[in-house]
Amino acid sequence: MDFARVSIQKPVLTWLLILSSLLGGYWGFQNVGRLEDPAFTIKEAVLFTSYPGASAEEVEREVTDKIEAAIQRLDMVKEIRSQSYAGRSVIQVELFGTAGPDVIPQIWDELRRKVGDVQAMLPPGAGPTLVDDDFGDVYGLLYAVNSSQIEHADLHRYVKRLKTQLMQVQDVADVQILGDIGEELHIDVSPEQLATFGIGPQELLSGIVTQNAVTDAGGFQVGGRFARLQPTGMYRDVDDLADLPIGRKAGEAYLKLGDVSEVSRGYEERPTRIVRYNGNDTILLGVAGRPKVNIVEVGYRVEDRINELETERPLGVEISPIYQQHSVVDESVNGFVLNLALSVLIVVGVLFIFMGWRSGLIVGVVLFLSVAATVFGMKILGIEMERISLGALIIAMGMLVDNAIVVAEGMLVRVQRGISKIEAASEAVRSTWLPLLGATVVGILAFSGIGLSSDATGEFTFSLFVVVTVSLLLSWVFAVTVTPLLGNYILEKPKAQTESVDPYKGVLYAVYRFVLKLTLRFKLVTVLILTFMTLGSLVGFSKVKQSFFPDSNTPIFYLNAWQPYGADIRATDEIAREVEQLLLEDERIESVATLVGAGAQRFMLVYAPELPDPSYVQFIVRTRAVEDIDAIIEEYVPKVEKSHPDLFVKTDRVRLGPGGGAKIEARIIGSDAERLREIAGEVQAVLSQDDELEAIRTNWRELEPTLRPHFDTERAQLQGLSREDFIAQLKMLSEGSVFGMYRENDELLPIRVRLPQADRENPDELSQRLIWSPGRSGWVPMESVVSSIELVSEEGLIHRKNRERTLTVQAEPVAGVLASAAFARNRPLVEAIELPDGYRLEWGGEYESSTDAQKALFAGLPVGYLGMLIIVILLFGKVRQPIVVWSVVPMSVIGVTWGLLGTGVAFGFMALLGIISLTGMLLKNSIVLVDEIDARITSGQARYDALVEASVSRARPVVLASVTTILGMAPLVFDAFFIGMAITIMAGLAFATLLTLVVVPAVYSILFRIRETERGSA
Q1: Cis (ω within 30 of 0) for the bond into 128?
Q2: Strand 589-596 relative to strand 556-562: parallel, antiparallel, unpaired?
Q3: Strand 747-754 to strand 183-188: parallel, antiparallel, or no bridges (unpaired)?
Q4: Is 172 strand, coil or helix?
Q5: How far from 860 is each of 453, 855, 994, CA to CA, in Å?
Q6: CB atoms within 10 A of CB 413
Q7: Which of 24, 53, 798, 985 has a CA-to-CA distance to 375 between 20 and 30 Å?
């Protein structure tokens, strides 16, 4: 089909295409979703099972193992990781990357059924198991609702009202509250005082449990209607509870609860989580938007709603944003759009300089249409504007003009020779549309490894493949339709000239002719030199720094600290307050959010919240400038470690891309806990010798302190006391037991019975306490049933991976050192440690994440590369031409190696994508050049002349395609995420362009045995 002639003779169709692209691009830009990072499914669920009173080993054996066995029968489960704590089991289930978002809900339903079936097999007192499959939800708007002036309970009630209002905002999917410390009613009573009055626990507690019970009292027919009976008598406040009769006379009056105890209202004494913001009492409010919506618009709607509710905000309460994804996205998208516009201007400017304003304008318009139509396509396909998709547009920028340059160049040359514009357009398109289409598809297939990658990293970068595919296909469509029409309008009319006019007579063309002929004369030497240079570059590539994903430019870092395992959250909080004040005194720090006992909501996709741990504290520190982060870390970490020697401190930066955990991890797998710790000690000793590693620790942490009362069964029987009754009373004698609930509006407050504070602070006096003997119906001293109370250490946390005990040694490289270099240095030393039979070593961390990502990527590459090879063979219908085309691909490593070594930029996952995309760019240029050589030889031109003249005629399109790509990517050099890819493509393409213009003709000459004597007559 003659696309050019149709587009010129029926311009209405072409203008309809242009108008549709412009309007669709505008509509798409206004309505396409906006995110900070591309959405990828976190294919994990977390299962929580309580088993109060059990040790970590009992939890592992009696709960964790049974649930894991049930989970293991699911088909799509990739990995099961579990943590068995004293009193609870936490199991994380990860699915294979091939599990798509559509089938995951069904898998989780099946998981619930499997776990539900195993509940009957759990020991008494264990369960039920709670399945959290919302583990990956992102609360991208995170606010600290804080105050130093009002009670925490009043703050909580305000936050609850605020949550109700925000849930009504359009496109808000969920609002989550974290950091609330529960209110309780406390009854402080000592056994000695009860013994004085002769009161037993049942007499004290029966009224508390039953007085506020809600029961159906029935009703009567009254006047034809049914009137429900609702008796009064519930206690409505603390005074009512204190006045509750407890059933014993004191003289002529009944005793009241307040006569034998102190009744008060307060907060849970040992909360699971404590949150502050800049030192103030805080509750975190996380807002999540619905999938596929414009998070920027959602964020501004939430802000507007908060402002509308300003009059309801109590005096002294502040709402401070910790993270506002919509602001970050807005700034990020605007920055990328600016970079995109800058890239367009650079590309158009280059075209104007080298092609003249007419041709440059034609190609520039085609470029703009391609970008606009791509944005329209993104909206249709559900691809959001985010870091990867916008970066893909910039990456594709140079390639988008390749097709249009070839067509415009072909038209321009023919018009200069005197051919009419419509004939020039027709000839230019008819001779190139098929090789251009093939080259375009080859360029797309170069990115197919991303599209076919099944892991989280592939999902994270999937939009790059989609955007490149859509944009390149559209660029071909516009090249064969819009370019001829615009050329017909804009190019000068042909002058009366003969075919002998040479459009390639400039100085640059003359220099290139000279170099090309010299190369062809010494073609074998040229190819051998470049082959040795390629081999040398492969060796030099081993010196290039390696990484996975870089750190973000977001001015936030995490200061994580752990007390020895088993620490009380109140002790952890005391240390947290000291560190918090130290940080807040620094003027470089804008805000500090303190989270004691657990991490925050997942407020960005790459943030992995820490599971509940009373010994853990995290400071989310926002600095005034990202450049200050390293200096602050270097200054304050030693201070904190010096003032608190028992504290383990680790810092993390916000990462760009999937991943998590420590950067270096060595997993030791085996059965015996003591042997695992011995091996881990040897690994730690090796890693500790490396001065460039820090934060060396194990995930099993320290042994946990445990008080062990030795219960004497024989003596207890004589006292009429069972072990079950004894354990139940220990709970009340330590931190108190909950008996009954107090109803207040929509809240149920636990009523906790406990010892007075002075009596429950010192465990040394525990054996002196009185306990109730049901058999004797009286109080007896604890020492009468306990022989001794021993403080021992035991495993408080047991990690397993795929049902095997797994102890992981973790380490971090010091600032400025890449994890890959430290890993490579220490790997052989650790692997040299002799392991006993039944124990093995596995590597995790950044090495595992990078390896898995590359495996998933390379798993799809053979299909893409096979497709590229087939297309090239089909285009030429022969074998030697594809060999010529592919010959330059390995040599591109020369430019890549020099570029990365020269700039000091690390080779990471994005740089790997750069090398893969570079393959497509090189093949694209080579296909067009080889096709032109074949066409000239087929037309009857002397082979040597055809080789030279074809190369000269394709020099400008090849150079322009490369220069526009290189300069168009220049803005990405300043982006931390894309710099590796940008340097790889820019350096590789710069050198490979020379290869295309020099090596392709040389290799073609060698394979086809073209000699210099095969010239045409002068």
Answers
A1: yes
A2: unpaired
A3: parallel
A4: strand
A5: 6, 9, 30
A6: 18
A7: 985
Q: Among 789, 794, 751, which residue's Cα sits nearest to residue 769?
A: 789
Judged by DSSP in three states, 123 sits in coil
Distance CA 530, CA 536 (A): 10
DSSP-assigned letters across all residues of 929-998:
HHHHHHHHHHTT--HHHHHHHHHHHHHHHHHHHHHHHHHHTGGGGG-TTTHHHHHHHHHHHHHHHHHHHH
Note the helical H segments in 644-748: 673-688, 713-719, 723-734
Which tokens in the block code for residue 949? 């003249």
Between CA 158 and CA 507 the distance in angstroms is 77
* Beta-carbon-side half-sphere exposure of residue 958 (alpha carbons within 13 Å): 28
The reported pTM is: 0.77
Helices and strands in the chain: count of H runs, count of E runs: 34, 30
Encoded tokens for 296: 């920027």
Determine the Cα angle at 343 with ends 340 and 348, to 5°: 130
Q: Are 76 and 107 in contact (CB under 8 A)?
A: yes
For every residue of 852-897, DSSP letters joined together read HHHHHHHHHHHHHHHHHHHHHHHHHSSSHHHHHHHHTTGGGHHHHH
Residues of the chain with pLDDT under 70: 1, 36-37, 39-41, 135-136, 247-253, 336, 398, 451-458, 495-504, 546-551, 656-661, 853, 856-857, 859-860, 1016-1018
- Amino acid in position 145: V
Residues 6+ apart with CB under 8 A from 794: 55, 56, 57, 703, 704, 706
H or E element, residue 530: helix 523-541
How many other C-beta atoms can be found within 10 angstroms of the C-beta atom of residue 385? 26
Separation of alpha carbons 436 and 870, rounded Å: 15
Q: How confident is the model at residue 1, as a pLDDT?
A: 67
Helices within 382-432 (DSSP H only): 387-400, 402-416, 421-430
Please report the pLDDT score of residue 1018 as a whole number.
46
How is residue 766 annotated by DSSP? G
Token couple for 409: 């160049």
Residue type, 707: L
Q: Which residues contact 540 (CB under 8 A, 6 or more apart)?
A: 897, 901
Half-sphere exposure of 901 (CA within 13 A, CB side): 14
Q: Helices 979-1007 and 880-887: crossing angle, nearest 10°?
A: 140
Tokens of 367: 């470029």
Q: Which two tokens stand for residue 613?
A: 């741990």
- Rounded CA-CA distance 921/446 in Å is 8
SS3 for 762-785 is CHHHHHHCEEEECCCCEEEEHHHC
Residue 571, phi then psi, degrees to nearest 5 = -70, -40
Query: Of 659, 465, 548, which is closest to residue 980 (Cα–Cα)?
Result: 548
Closest CA to 41 of 458, 388, 449: 458
Longest dimension (CA), the chain: 136
Tell me the residue length of the chain: 1018
Q: In angstroms, rounded to a whole number, what is the distance separating the alpha carbons of residues 609 and 580?
A: 20
Using an 8 Å Cβ cutoff, are 444 and 468 in contact? yes
Q: Tally Cβ neighbours within 10 Å of residue 496.
A: 5
Measured in whole angstroms, the distance separating CA 801 from the mean position of its chain's CA atoms is 22
Residue-wise burial string across 533-552, b where 16 or more C-beta atoms lie within 10 A, e elsewhere: bbeebeebeeebbbbbbbbb
Query: Residue 92 pairs with which residues in a beta bridge?
Result: 46, 81
Tens digit of each residue's pLDDT (9 = 90 or more) over 725-751? 888 888 888 888 888 888 877 788 888
pLDDT in tens, 343-400: 778 777 887 887 788 888 888 888 889 989 999 999 898 888 877 787 788 777 767 7
Q: Which two tokens stand for residue 909?
A: 């996952």
Q: Where are the beta strands (DSSP E) in 203-279?
A: 219-222, 225-228, 245-250, 253-256, 262-267, 274-277
